[in-house]
């Protein structure tokens, strides 16, 4: 059983940090190199990972692993769409569904506002965990470091202690917000969709910054928290 657990941990780490070598994997996981090497060999033989090339062998996931992720993603989208539509109807704003992937969240679905002034993010865009509402909603439940805290605007949180305090606030009120921290023209509130082992996605209400004054921020925060809870329950 421990061998299976080790292999799954190695697969998760490869997916999060690919391409990655055995030495770095061993350090990140706190496992002996020999244990990691056995797991890599097993995963490679089973078709889940492959060498990324180069003089030093580094590993990345194969299309087999990605296909499983896509199948899971489709199920998440199907469950999320009615919840997202209701949230859009109640707010009149753009709704985003994002999933965690390594040090970012990735946009996999959106429902746009009917209002002429809108900010459109392309599907597949990656947003930093520490500088987006969706990212902070996820990061608060991961309870792990966010990596390098790059500054994107004047309001980006780049101090680790300030970020920890911010994440404590997210857990206390149930939702995260973004005050122009990734792009100064975007405001958002987001809440995590939780699975048995932590956050599997996040839902957000996203608007131009001028369209989210404080009273609406709090109102939208409550609505997105309710929506994320409903989606969590529907996923079982």
UniProtKB/TrEMBL annotation:
Domain IclR-ED per the UniProt entry, residue ranges: 64-236
Domain of life: Bacteria
SUPFAM superfamilies: GAF domain-like, Winged helix' DNA-binding domain
GO molecular function: DNA binding; DNA-binding transcription factor activity
Residues annotated as domain HTH iclR-type: 1-63
Tagged with keyword Transcription regulation: yes
InterPro entries for this protein: ArsR-like_HTH (IPR011991), GAF-like_dom_sf (IPR029016), HTH_MetabolicPath_Reg (IPR050707), Tscrpt_reg_IclR_C (IPR014757), Tscrpt_reg_IclR_N (IPR005471), WH-like_DNA-bd_sf (IPR036388), WH_DNA-bd_sf (IPR036390)
Record bears the keyword DNA-binding: yes
Pfam families: HTH_IclR (PF09339), IclR_C (PF01614)
Biological process, per Gene Ontology: negative regulation of DNA-templated transcription
Keyword terms of this UniProt record: DNA-binding, Transcription, Transcription regulation
Listed name of the protein: IclR family transcriptional regulator
Taxonomic source organism: Nonomuraea fuscirosea
């Amino acid at each position: 059983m421990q061998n299976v657990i080790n292999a799954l941990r190695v697969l998760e780490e490869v997916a999060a940090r690919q391409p990655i070598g055995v030495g770095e994997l061993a350090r990140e996981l706190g496992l002996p190199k020999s244990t990691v090497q056995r797991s890599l060999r097993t995963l490679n033989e089973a078709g889940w990972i492959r060498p990324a090339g180069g003089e030093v062998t580094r590993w990345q996931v194969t299309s087999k692993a990605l296909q499983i992720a896509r199948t899971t993603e489709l199920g998440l989208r199907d469950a999320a769409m009615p919840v997202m539509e209701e949230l859009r109807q109640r707010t009149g704003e753009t709704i985003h569904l994002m999933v965690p992937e390594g040090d970012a969240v990735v946009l996999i679905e959106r429902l746009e506002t009917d209002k002429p002034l809108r900010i459109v993010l392309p599907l597949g865009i990656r947003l930093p965990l520490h500088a987006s509402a969706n990212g902070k909603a996820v990061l608060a439940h991961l309870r792990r470091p966010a990596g390098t805290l790059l500054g994107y605007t004047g309001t980006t949180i780049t101090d680790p202690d300030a970020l920890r305090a911010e994440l404590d606030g997210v857990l206390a009120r149930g939702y995260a917000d973004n005050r122009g921290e990734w792009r100064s023209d975007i405001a958002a509130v987001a809440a995590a969709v939780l699975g048995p082992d932590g956050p599997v996605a996040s839902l957000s209400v996203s608007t131009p910054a001028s369209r989210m004054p404080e009273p609406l921020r709090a109102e939208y925060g409550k609505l997105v928290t309710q929506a994320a809870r409903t989606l969590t329950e529907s996923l079982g």
